[in-house]
Amino acid sequence: MLTIDRATYDAIVAHARRDHPDEACGVVAGPAGSDRPTRFVPMANAARSSTFYEFDSMDLLRLYRDMDNRDEEPVVIYHSHTATEAHPSRTDVGLAMEPGAHYVLVSTREADTTEFRSFRIVEGTVTEEEVRVVAVLDQSTTEQRT
Amino acid sequence: MSIEVQIPTILRGHTEGQKTVPGSGGTLGELLADLEGRHPGLRDRLVEGGGLRRFVNVYLNDEDVRFLGGLETPVAEGDTVTVLPAVAGG
Fold first, then answer.
1. Which CATH number is A2-133 given?
2. Which of A77, A135, A139, B7 lies at 20 to 30 Å from B61 by C-alpha?
3. Which chain B positions have a beta carbon within 8 Å of A100's beta carbon?
4. Can you give the pTM of this predicted structure?
5. What integer pLDDT is reported at residue A138 of this predicted model?
6. Whether B82 contacts chain A with CB within 8 A
7. B88 vs A88: CB contact, 8 Å cut-off?
8. pLDDT in tens, A24-59
9. A57 to B86: CB separation less than 8 angstroms, yes or no
10. Can you give the pLDDT at residue A140?
11. Residue B10's Cα: distance from chain center in Å?
């Protein structure tokens, strides 16, 4: 299960909407081993494409150095699909290299409804998981379900 | 003194879980060949045919080796080589 706070959830969706018709991408970093996505980091899609995304290689280096210095890891890796469902494509599965991450897919194919789904991708196997949106990460008593 | 190679999480199965491993060589290609002796299978995850795999990024200090010389990039003692899989998809 992915537990994510409302503000971060909204920021991911807003990024996906803003970059449409290109795919949007980014990470939510969090303390290593915590499974808590706390630091929203939108990234540029170097591919500038409606069917592909890739972090720029220098941005990628800076991101991982930064996370290393803060003792963080990529808890969430997100990207959008602009014309298809919010489910990992064959390409997504082939290129998924963070077995510990929650892979979040947002679909912007419909202007008025947003699909937001989360998956684990481990050695080619995709497993969907529940997304729990909370008001604040530490106070799970105020949770809402999507 | 040697060359420090930073290994991403997904490839640490080849390095007994170590985050950084030391290596030596005059070029990136030689360095990877040196590492292969102690960490079998690692090179194959980075190299395909005669070049680096498309979705693996290798940096010499702060530069992407694709813009230096790929596997022919000269490396020296005291350098840091960082390996990061691309974050990409469709």
1. 3.40.140.10
2. A77
3. 9
4. 0.93
5. 77
6. yes
7. no
8. 999 999 999 999 999 999 999 999 999 999 999 999
9. yes
10. 46
11. 13
